[in-house]
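re: the backbone from monday

yeah here it is again, tokenized this time
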């Protein structure tokens, strides 16, 4: 569930904080990293369950309308298409998800005003109205609507970010990343999957946990070691004038190239260029790409990059 790119991003954030902290040890930083990854995992479940609590709010509105002293025809004959959405039912019926939500107390039920305000925002949209007015009730149409709720409405709903920031400092920058994960999961859902393939182990592979530990520790331990390497390959740039985040991204990339013999150099380079697009200054990815290309050439000329494993011998 937590990919290596997510691990790299989390390490980037944690080391950036470490660089500006006083008296923080590597062991404390490692604990902070894994706590941060666990909070990321929690937020995946919390956001995934959001659609269920949204459905429950819609159900309560219908029941309130039916209970009026003088209900209208519309009150007694409501459009139940949203509350009968097949994909939401799949999510709601996932017992493993419910157990996780209950255990970690991740329900949205304590945020009734937030749910109500979002629902009112949703039902006023043309997209939702078109969905509700369409008499078709196919699984595919239901899936498209749920995906739109996440990718279009929730991702752009500013109060969500404020709400999550109040709940955890580790949820400040997670939403966009996790909504992309959830959208991918939803796209792969099949009707015949019953409750659906929704939950995953925290790490895709056990070695990813060790990768996280080692990349964090080795980057911190060798942080100053790569100053001369960056200076030499950054032409007329003074190292002190390069943004701290840019330097950190390059040092993580160098650490990974030199210390992780099973990861192709190109994979490492591509990963950190992508990360730079979102976590550094404008056009930093071009700047970082240029410097890292030169560093890779130097390290290979010096025979310092050693890769082992299938398909890696003689890596160009």
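seq for it, each position gets an aa:
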């Amino acid at each position: 569930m937590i990919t290596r790119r997510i691990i790299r991003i989390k390490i980037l954030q944690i080391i950036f904080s470490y660089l500006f902290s006083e008296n923080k040890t590597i062991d404390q930083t490692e604990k902070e990293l894994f706590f941060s990854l666990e909070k990321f995992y929690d937020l995946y479940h919390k956001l995934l369950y959001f659609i269920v609590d949204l459905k429950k709010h819609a159900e309560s509105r219908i029941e309130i309308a039916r209970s009026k002293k003088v209900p209208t025809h519309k009150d007694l004959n409501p459009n139940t298409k949203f509350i009968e959405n097949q994909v939401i039912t799949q999510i709601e019926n996932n017992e493993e998800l419910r157990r996780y939500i209950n255990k970690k107390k991740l329900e949205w039920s304590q945020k009734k005003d937030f749910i109500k305000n979002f629902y009112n925002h949703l039902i006023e949209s043309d997209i939702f109205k078109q969905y509700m007015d369409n008499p078709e009730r196919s699984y595919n149409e239901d899936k498209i609507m749920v995906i739109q709720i996440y990718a279009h409405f929730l991702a752009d709903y500013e109060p969500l970010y404020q709400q999550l920031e109040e709940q955890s400092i580790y949820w400040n920058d997670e939403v966009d990343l996790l909504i992309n994960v959830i959208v991918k999961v939803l796209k792969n859902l099949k009707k015949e999957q019953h409750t659906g393939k929704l939950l995953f182990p925290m790490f895709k592979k056990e070695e990813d946990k060790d990768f996280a530990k080692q990349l964090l520790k080795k980057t911190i331990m060798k942080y100053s070691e790569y100053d001369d390497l960056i200076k030499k390959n950054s032409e007329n740039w003074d190292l002190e004038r390069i943004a701290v985040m840019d330097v950190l991204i390059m040092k993580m990339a160098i650490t990974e190239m030199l210390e992780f013999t099973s990861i192709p150099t190109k994979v490492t380079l591509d990963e950190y260029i992508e990360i730079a697009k979102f976590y550094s200054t404008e056009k930093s990815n071009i700047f970082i790409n240029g410097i890292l290309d030169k560093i890779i050439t130097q390290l290979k000329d010096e025979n310092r990059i050693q890769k082992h494993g299938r398909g890696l011998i003689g890596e160009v």
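The chain has two domains: 4-193, 222-301. The mean pLDDT is 92.
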